[in-house]
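Inverse folding, one chain.
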């Protein structure tokens, strides 16, 4: 490693740039004009480079210079190397001026609420690259916050709003309805009684560990016991699969507002009962307290809480929670 570093330190980078310019122009005077040097200075750099390499690179003629065979072979390597260096410098400069915003959320919110609106966010902030990262983790402890939110500017997560070391505001309250596709509903009419819902095939969202959201048992506890199922239920391990199964007519799912709002609005899904199951949980906008103030984060927060979201569910103020 040390030997390689020593070789890099010995590279005559200025001489290589002068050599490339002289070869391209075919004249030392042309290279001097481009590089804001004197012709004598160009000639000196070329002579030093030839001495260092131990080979003649140019044949000096009265009206200019001409590459030797060794010089022509060397030029190909120099051009390739200088191009790589130029591309690397340009990339580094782009990163220095590039504005990025990292948003963390779960797969369900990303797929069914955020992605249909991401173009509008890009139009709002055309000079900012939005990087959307999804997680399935249960982020509710200090260790999880430190691990998951350390590199993110903003998060939209489901829970009670008590994330340690963060400030949070509820964006949507938890509202859950039974939903299915029109094709699966068939000739049945809505709204229907809870007992009728229980006769359909139910689509379950599996929870690994502590239950963080409503399950069908919670729904039937609130609205009435489920009768004996008429057909075998189906259990899936993420909410995107649950909604896809419902859209494909595989059964009845619990639908979380506002994730299902557009699907209900365009007729892809049908609510089976008018009364939602609600709780104190919901989706919250979350900012780690250790992050410096960011004007782009403020813009996204305001955009998330736009009037397109029902007033009763919109975030109104942030509450600090030190944990």
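Residues assigned per position:
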């Amino acid at each position: 490693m040390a030997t390689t570093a020593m070789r890099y330190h010995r590279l005559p980078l200025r001489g290589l740039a002068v050599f490339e310019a002289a070869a391209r122009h075919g004249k030392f005077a042309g290279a001097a004009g481009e590089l804001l040097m004197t012709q004598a200075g160009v000639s000196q750099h070329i002579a030093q480079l030839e001495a260092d390499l131990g080979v003649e690179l140019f044949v000096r003629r009265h009206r200019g210079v001409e590459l030797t065979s060794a010089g022509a072979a060397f030029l190909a390597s120099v051009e390739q190397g200088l191009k790589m260096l130029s591309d690397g410098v340009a990339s580094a400069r782009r990163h220095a001026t590039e504005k990025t915003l990292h948003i963390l959320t779960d797969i369900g919110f990303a797929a069914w609420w955020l992605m249909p609106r991401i173009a509008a966010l890009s139009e709002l902030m055309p000079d900012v690259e939005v990087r959307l990262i999804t997680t399935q983790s249960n982020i509710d402890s200090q260790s999880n916050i430190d691990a998951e939110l350390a590199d993110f500017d903003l998060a939209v997560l489901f829970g009670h709003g008590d994330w340690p070391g963060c400030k949070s505001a509820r964006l949507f309250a938890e509202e859950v309805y039974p939903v299915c596709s029109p094709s699966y509903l068939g000739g049945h009419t809505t709204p229907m009684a809870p007992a009728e819902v229980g006769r359909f095939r139910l689509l379950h969202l599996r929870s690994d560990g502590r239950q963080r959201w409503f399950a069908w048992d919670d729904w039937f506890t609130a609205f009435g016991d489920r009768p004996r199922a008429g057909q075998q239920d189906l259990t899936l391990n993420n909410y995107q699969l649950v909604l896809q199964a419902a859209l494909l007519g595989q059964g009845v799912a619990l639908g979380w507002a506002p994730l299902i709002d557009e699907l209900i609005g365009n007729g892809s899904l049908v609510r089976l009962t008018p009364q939602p199951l609600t709780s104190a949980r919901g989706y919250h906008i979350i900012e780690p307290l250790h992050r410096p103030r960011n004007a782009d984060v403020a813009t996204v927060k305001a955009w998330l809480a736009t009037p397109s979201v029902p007033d009763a569910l919109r975030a109104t103020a942030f509450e600090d929670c030190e944990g």
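The chain is about 40% helix and 25% strand. The longest strand covers residues 166-180.
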